[in-house]
Amino acid sequence: MIPFAEARRHVLDRCVPLAPVERPLDDALGCVLATSAVAGEAVPPFANSGMDGYAVRSVDVADAAEGEPVRLRVAGTIAAGAPPDIEVTAGAAVRIMTGAPVPPGADAIVMVERSNRTGDHEVDITQAVPVGLHIRAAGDDIAAGTEVVAAGTVLHPAHLGVLASVGERRPLVIARPRVGVISTGDELVDDGRPLEPGQIRESNRPTLVAAVRAYGCDAVDLGTVADDREALAAALEAAAATYDAVVTSGGVSMGDFDLVKVVLDELADMAWMQIDIRPAKPFAFGVLGSTPVFGLPGNPVSSLVSLSLLGVPGLRRLAGRTDLDLPHVTAIAGAGLTRRPDGRTAYLRVRCRWADGGLVAEPVGQQGSHHLAATAAANALAVLPDGVGVAEGGHVTVVLLHSPFTP
Ligand code: AMP
Ligand code: MG
Questions:
Q1: Residue 356 pLDDT
Q2: Which ligand has its closest atom nearest to the C-alpha of 182?
Q3: Who lines ligand 1 at CB under 6 A?
Q4: In percent, how much of the chain has pLDDT > 70?
Q5: Which of 299, 305, 372, 375 to mutate to test the pocket of ligand 1 (most atoms within 8 A of CB)?
Q6: Ligand 2 center to residue 223 CA distance, Å?
Q7: Nearest ligand 1 atom to alpha carbon 282
Q8: pTM of the entire structure?
Q9: Model confidence over 20-61: pLDDT tens digits?
């Protein structure tokens, strides 16, 4: 058996970031920005009103107060999107809307709640305002020439808005990895027909395709391949030639028909590993041409755990990310998290919930590598080093598979 860290390192050393590509903003969420974005223009581009109200000269309203209004002449109205073509002269005000440019002559905005309109061309102001009040200066959010999003940033929704605000509509990002997903096994049935003796229903592809997508890649379902050397070789070669990475399940254990590792060894620079973890001990990783191939074990829970612990860091590396692993956080064991000593690190399927200001992890039920139904209730893996586990109330590291804050 080899240590998990060594297997992870092996994968990372063979996954290199993909080439940068231009992407429209609506296809860039979650991508890594390849080059720093610098603002070519100021945001906001001009001084504008932060309130609906009146643009005034603050000297004109210096004596205004509640019950002691100052009457001003209303010289016109400026809406958002209109040019500031009305000047505010002594004794005058301009009706102004939020986002509209501040007209020449005005140096402050009085919010509409501090005014009483007394006629079409007159308004009473009931508040003295300091120079600059409610005026958003040009460049107040972003000055022209400054870096707005650094290279290497994983783009979140607000980053996309910031890029749009400076006119960047097709940022250069690391391409989102396109991942081909293949299941292997003569026993697998992937349509609705009745099962013959010995057959089971294929369940890994729906899980792995969805997981690969949830982890920010484009997944393509490449179907099921029989336990047949030629069929496997053809499928792997075609997938490796087409996609940025390939994920297979099954065929990497000790069985006579576990041929993925055999074929991968013939075609690729391959390492077949027995890793000191449970589940997901067997793992094959090959580089076919220049394409990484993740040979996950076939047991449904093992394949998902393997993808989460070894696939995710490799795929994130391809995606240009430097935060490689799923989040590891500390939780309190809400019940005993038990295991038996076997020289391996156990990853127990647990459900984490927020309680009393912290995360509480509870086991989800059956913990066999084929117990997918119980795993579906889990949102995290509790990391239990070799030993007997963690007693109720103890601290435990958990790997978050998805957010414990959403159902
Ligand atoms: P293998 O790794 O190919 O030896 O498969 C290990 C176990 O996982 C066997 O019981 C297989 O029937 C099961 N298995 C493999 N692939 C799948 C799949 N795609 N869907 C459901 N079960 C699978
Ligand atoms: Mg098999």
A1: 86
A2: 1
A3: 183, 185, 187-188, 200, 202-204, 249-251, 253, 255, 258, 297-300
A4: 100
A5: 299
A6: 14
A7: 2
A8: 0.94
A9: 999 999 999 999 999 999 999 999 999 999 999 999 999 999
